[in-house]
Structures are given as structure tokens and as C-alpha cells.
Amino acid sequence: MHQHFSFTRPLGLSFAVGIALAVGFWGFGVVWAQNDTNAGAANIVYPEMDALRGKKLFAERGCVVCHAVNNVGGDIGPGFDASNIDQSLNPFDFFARMWHGADEMLHLQRADLGYQIDFNGQDLADIYAFAHDREAQESFTEDDLSDRIREIIDNGPSVTFE
After folding, report:
1. How far is CA 8 from the centre of its chain?
2. Which Gene3D superfamilies match (predicted)?
């Protein structure tokens, strides 16, 4: 049985972001060990990560407006260059760090893009792969950006945070 929920902002947005991140976490193939009172463990299936698809999503969805890769993109958020990212960082830690900036990211997305970026678990897996793949990042150039995304980057953020 499916239930439908209706939330008002900001609780609804926080809940939606939490669900999106949780779906992303679940999508990374972690074997979830149950406590000793439950028999066995539940295997969670994870998507294959595709760095080239992540590269495309990074540009198309607008992540590049705030985050740079290969000197392409904004400098509002931390860069996503694989050379600067802790390669041992697991997906849970990677997205937990993103969660810390969720409020600001949502405000900037709505202000500059006109919408909230929506990801599913596969999208998050692919972006995680792109953020950790130096070879895929080396081919990332301004040619990967749409004119609209390039214009938003050139104009700078429309919202500032202290």
C-alpha cells in the first residue's frame, strides 16, 4: 500500500533532499548488517557507476554552476577535481558532506537555475564516479556546457550567504 504525503516548505524540501540522498546511499551496494536478533543480512543492490554519464549530468543539471572541475565552473562550492577529493572517501561520507550544504544549495538552485535539481540513485552514483575519475574529468571543458549554464556561471550567483 502506498501513502502520499504533502509537506510545506522547508520541512518538505528537507525531507525530499533527505529521501534523495538516502536513495543515493542505498544505491551504492552496501550490505546492511542486521542486529544479532535478526537472522542474516539484507543485500542491497547497487547501480554500476558511470563517470562519463556523471560528467554529462554534472554539466546538464547545473552542478557546474557552483562546483568546478578541470577549471570549468563556478567557485561558490568546493571544487570536484578528483585530484583534490579524498579518493578513499566512500559514498556515504561524500554525500554526508553535501548534506551539510543542502540548504544553501537548494536556495542557489532555485535562484539561479529556477528549479531544484532532482537526482535519483543512479544519477548520484554516476556523479560520485565522475567526481573520482581523473580521466573523465580531463575531457571536461566549457564545450560540455549549455549556453544557459555558461551564462549563469558568467553572471555569478544571485544569492549570497554569510
Report:
1. 23
2. Cytochrome c-like domain
pLDDT tier at 30, thresholds 50, 70, 90: very low
* pTM score: 0.70
**Residue count (the chain):** 162
Burial of 16 (0-12, 13-18, 19+ CB in 10 A): middle
Asked whether 162 and 111 are in contact (CB, 8 A), the reply is no
Residues 6+ apart with CB under 8 A from 87: 132
Q: What is the pLDDT of residues 83-115, one digit of tens each?
A: 888 777 788 888 888 888 889 999 999 998 999
* Residue whose C-alpha is closest to residue 91's, from 71, 121, 112: 121
Contact 54, 47 (CB under 8 A): no
Nearest-angstrom CA–CA distance, 24 and 44: 12
> What does the DSSP 8-state code read for residue 143?
G
